Amino acid sequence: MPTAPLGAAPHRVLTIAGSDSGGGAGIQADMRTFATLGLHACVAITAVTVQNSTGVQDFRGVDPDIVGAQIRSVAGDIGIEAAKTGMLASTAIIEAVAAAADAEGIGKGRATPLVVDPVAASMHGDPLLASEALDALRAELIPRATVVTPNLDEVRLITGIEVVDGDSQRRAADSLLALGAQWALVKGGHLRESPDSPDLLTDGAQFVAFTAPRVPTGHDHGAGDTLAAAITAALAHGRAVPAAVEFGKAWVTEGLRWAYPLGAGHGPVNPLWAVAPSIEHRYGEQTDRSDSP
Ligand code: PXL
Question: What pTM, to 2 d.p., does this model score?
Answer without folding.
Answer: 0.95
